[in-house]
Amino acid sequence: MDGFSLRRALVALALLLVAAGVMVGASSCSTPVANRNPVGEMFPSVSGEALDDAVVRVPESLAGEPAVLLVGYEQDTQFDLDRWLIGLTQLETPVKFLELPTIPGLIPGMFAGTIANGMRSGIPAEMWGGVVTLYGDDAARVVAALGNEKPRCGRVLLLDREGRIAWFFDQGFSPAQLAALDAMARDLAK
Question: Is-above-0.90 flag for pTM?
Fold first, then answer.
């Protein structure tokens, strides 16, 4: 085998290994974890980077005040989360909102910059600080706490002042549940 053929064989082998790694990484993202109701539990301590490049620790950065977390596992979840955000905004719910795109697995973290740039292109700059993406182990902790069945439905949580989950819903947008969330958030904000 000449040097050119050997080089081509090595490149082909490298591409095959990369493809296999992507397939393994992609399958680890979709490992099913049963949904569960975490009300009364502390939200797991995680760290991510906001679209404005700030590093944010949750729930630590929210300590001392209640907050709504909107967790999404897939791009298609955005439609569900947007309805929650619009409703909370229209009701003028008096707590902070933080959107947590949650992307478990090793491979997605390698493309964090590309993913963040894609999100920035569809979100006004004034909202970038409220979108904190979680990857790898941080994302896995959230999945373990909440489950990932029906991933197109967002996970909507209300944290109390200490970071404990006071309210939770993961069945898609519901006007009745929005009203319940708003009422509890107002109660906690007093």
Answer: no
